[in-house]
Structures are given as structure tokens and as C-alpha cells.
Amino acid sequence: MKRLLTLLIGLALLAGVATAVPEPQSAPQQTDQKKDVTVYVTRTGKKYHRAGCSALRSSSIPISLKDAKAKGYTALQVVPHAGTASDS
Q: For the chain, what is the domain count?
């Protein structure tokens, strides 16, 4: 009788573990969301920018991040100015 009870408890625990495992389908959805990011390029530049970037002055052409990388654009690397809070 103890063996049967132990077996039933073990099966119940295994069933609980099996239902607690998340489905692996959520990772591809996150990857798809990253592809939909919009960045901005200029007519003459070779860098892409985020919305609101202070380096975007004259032209800002919206493009997907995926397309910007495919066309050879690279990310703008922002360097903090002297005297800002990040220098202390």
C-alpha cells in the first residue's frame, strides 16, 4: 500500500512539473519584435539613430533596424560631453 501511495505521489509531482514548464515559442516572438524596431538615417550619413537623437538635424528617414543593417548603416556611438554628470 505504501508503494502504491508513493507511486501516486510521484506521478502527481511529475505531472505538476510537466505543466509548469513554459512553452519555447515565446523566444521567436521576442526576436520578431526586435526586427520591427524603427531607426532613422540621413541622406548623406552612414549611421542610424534612435528617435529623438540630437544628431538628427536636417533629414531623418525612417527605416527598420533590420533594413538599416542590411544596407550597411551602423549605430551612432554617443560620447558624453565634458562636464556632464557621467564624468564625475
A: 1
Q: Beta strands 61-64 and 38-41: pairing type?
A: antiparallel
Q: Which residue has the higher pLDDT, 3 or 65?
A: 65
User: Which structural domain range is residue 67 located in?
Assistant: 33-79
Q: What is the mean pLDDT of the chain?
A: 75
State the pLDDT confidence band at 88, using cuts at 50, 70 and 90.
Answer: very low
Query: Look-up: residue for cell 520578431?
Result: 32
- Gap between the terminal Cα atoms of the chain: 71
Joined together, the cell numbers standing for residue 15 give 505531472
* 53 located within any domain: yes
The Cα 54–Cα 81 span in angstroms is: 13
